[in-house]
Write a structure and sequence with these properties.
This protein is mostly beta strands. The protein has a single domain, classed as OB fold (Dihydrolipoamide Acetyltransferase, E2P) (Beta Barrel). It is 0% helix and 57% strand. The protein contains no helices and 5 strands. Strand 2 and strand 3 form a beta hairpin.
Amino acid sequence: MSYRFGDEIEVIIDREGLGIDEGVGHLPDDTMVVIAGAGGKVGEAVKATVLAIESTRLGSSVLASAIA
């Protein structure tokens, strides 16, 4: 799957993120997504807008912001 800045996605939050008010989930291809504004929403589906894609030697991750 390929995502770009501004794409809207929906992710089920698996756990709290490391930052304040962050939630972490995974896309269907198992890409990790860190969503600002999704803290306290573990187990919930959250709609978000993609802000950035980060690629490392371990794989890619998506940074996104929850849509209110």
